[in-house]
Each structure stands twice: as structure tokens, then as C-alpha cells.
């Protein structure tokens, strides 16, 4: 049975509404004007939804609705949010509800926000704001990226030319990080994000275990903080943070990218990975710019 027969008043009002969207007096509105009006109506209905349905959505800062949980571990909760007026997707990194009173975790999140908010570079995934959730937990607001390099290399080979594009962008990002006085400490495929899967949009993300140069993770109450496949031996042993430790991780990243492609890699790329991955810190490129020149 049609809506017109069941709800004649609703159908009539909808017809009037549609006529108002399409026309302003005798003038027909442009397509963009019509879309803007439709979006405003959607937002208005969105705001009234709790009263209509009796269900209260999870709103953060009165501006972001929680779409879904993208990732959860013992210490990290990653949510996808939607801006209630713009409809744009965003990421929010926080701690799981069960850890809301963990002062060490909360301070680490605030430290990460302090680093992220101070850094702006086209090869870094920016931190947009530090928000407070309704239950008091802090949350890092960031742009939403649908793809990580980890998800891409698990599904397809990476050609040498593509690997070089990625490595260049990561080294440019690290140059900015090191210039700010920090070491990233966790350069891995999972922490390299891409817009629409395009390699030329690769951005380094996640300052969750970043350190000031010369500091140790033990000073932050962390017995161990590293990704074993990508961390240099001295980082695994708790040594003070130095920029060349990130360079080692870039070398390991280069090897990981090379391994995805059955084609023979250029000797220069192999030599780059070998130089960065030296177990002797003194034999590695000491800065991101030095590594970039070598690449």
C-alpha cells in the first residue's frame, strides 16, 4: 500500500517540501542549492532523531556521532565518527572504557596529542583536536583514512617505483618529527595511512610511543615499546631514543615492501635498505634527509 493512501497528510507535506527544495518562487534552484537544502534537512532530522526514536545516539562534543568501532585492543579504542552537520568521517583514538581510570594510559594519550597538535606536514596524519568524551576520557580527533599500508601490502605486490614513493614520504615526515625534537619509535606499515589507497598520499601516523630525543620508554612506565620486526636492536633493549632508530625502521619497511614483489628490485633500493638496517647505529644514515639523499 502506498504512503499516499496510509499517510495522506505526510505525503502532501512531503510534496510541498520537495517543491520548496526545487524552486524559490518561480526560479528553479541550481543542483548545488538543492543539495545544500537537502543536507540541511537531513541534519535537522538527525538532530531530532533522539526524540523520534527514543534512542539516544553517542554524541561526542555535541558534534560527532559514533558510527562504529574500527579497532580495539587492551589499551586502545579507535572509533569512526561522523560530523553531525557536515557528514564527514573522522577517527577518534581513546582508551577502552574499562581503562578510563588508568592514569598512565591517559597521560600517554595526552602526550601523543601534544606532539600531534604541534606537528603539521603534508606527509603526516594530523591530530585535529583533543576532545573529552561524555564519561571524561580524552580522545584524539584525526582525519579518517580507510586504508593502511599494512592492509594494502597484504593484498597486492608493491612495485619498486611505488615503494620509493612511500619511502620518500615517510622520510619527509620523519624529518619534520625529528626537527621537533622527537623520535617516532614505531614506523610500521600499520602506521602509514593512505587516502583512497593512493601511494602518493601516504602519511605517517600514530605518536603513541613517540619519545623526545634522548628519553627512554622506561621513564614513561613502559617496560617495552616497539614493533619487533621494525625496531633496531638497541631500541628493543630500552636505549635512549635517537633519530637513526627511525631510519632503521625505514630500512626494515623497505625490505618489507621489496618482499611483496616477485620482480627483481633495483640494486639501489636493496643498498638503501641494507644501509638503513645496519645493526651498528653509527653505520646508518644519521638523519632522515641523509637517508632521503641515499634513496
How would the blueprint of this fold be written?
Layout lengths: L2 H4 L1 H15 E2 L2 E2 L2 H23 L5 E2 L3 E9 L4 E7 L5 E6 L8 H16 L10 E4 L5 E6 L3 E2 H5 L6 H20 L2 E2 L8 E3 L8 E2 L6 E2 L20 H4 L6 H17 L7 H10 L11 H7 L1
Antiparallel strand pairs: 1-2, 3-4, 4-5, 5-6, 6-8, 7-8, 9-11, 10-13, 11-12
Verbal overview:
With 295 residues, the chain is α+β, with helices and mostly antiparallel strands. The protein has ten helices and 13 strands. A six-stranded antiparallel beta sheet has the order 3-4-5-6-8-7, with helices on one face. It has a three-stranded antiparallel beta sheet with strand order 9-11-12. Helix 6 packs antiparallel against helix 10 and helix 8 (243-259) runs antiparallel to helix 9. The longest helix is centred in the N-terminal third of the chain and has 23 residues, at 31-53. The protein starts with a helix and ends with a helix.
Amino acid at each position: 500500500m502506498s504512503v499516499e493512501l496510509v499517510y495522506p497528510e505526510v505525503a502532501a507535506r512531503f510534496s510541498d517540501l520537495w517543491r520548496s527544495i526545487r524552486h524559490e518562487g518561480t526560479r528553479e534552484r541550481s543542483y548545488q542549492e538543492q543539495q545544500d537544502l537537502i543536507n540541511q534537512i537531513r541534519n535537522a532530522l538527525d538532530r531530532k532523531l533522539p526524540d523520534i526514536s527514543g534512542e539516544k545516539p553517542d554524541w561526542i562534543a555535541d558534534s560527532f556521532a559514533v558510527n562504529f568501532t574500527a579497532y580495539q585492543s587492551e589499551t586502545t579504542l579507535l572509533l569512526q565518527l561522523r560530523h553531525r552537520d557536515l557528514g564527514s568521517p573522522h577517527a577518534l583514538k581513546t582508551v577502552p572504557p574499562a581503562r578510563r581510570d588508568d592514569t598512565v594510559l591517559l597521560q600517554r594519550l595526552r602526550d601523543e596529542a601534544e606532539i600531534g597538535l604541534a606537528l603539521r606536514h603534508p606527509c603526516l596524519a594530523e591530530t585535529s583536536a583533543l576532545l573529552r568524551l561524555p564519561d571524561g576520557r580524552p580522545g584524539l580527533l584525526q582525519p579518517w583514512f580507510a586504508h593502511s599500508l599494512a592492509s594494502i601490502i597484504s593484498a597486492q605486490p608493491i612495485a619498486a617505483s611505488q615503494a620509493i614513493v612511500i619511502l620518500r614520504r615517510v622520510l619527509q615526515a620523519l624529518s619534520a618529527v625529528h626537527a621537533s625534537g622527537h623520535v617516532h619509535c614505531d614506523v610500521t606499515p600499520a602506521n602509514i595511512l593512505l587516502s583512497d589507497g593512493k601511494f602518493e598520499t601516504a602519511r605517517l601516523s600514530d605518536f603513541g610511543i613517540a619519545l623526545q630525543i634522548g628519553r627512554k620508554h622506561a621513564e614513561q612506565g613502559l617496560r617495552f615499546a616497539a614493533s619487533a620486526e621494525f625496531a633496531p636492536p638497541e631500541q628493543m633493549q630500552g636505549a635512549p631514543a635517537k633519530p637513526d632508530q627511525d631510519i632503521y625502521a625505514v630500512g626494515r619497511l623497505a625490505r618489507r615492501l621489496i618482499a611483496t614483489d616477485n620482480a627483481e628490485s633495483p640494486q639501489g633500493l636493496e643498498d638503501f635498505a641494507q644501509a638503513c638496517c645496519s645493526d651498528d647505529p653509527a653505520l646508518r644514515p644519521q638523519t632522515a634527509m641523509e637517508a632521503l639523499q641515499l634513496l
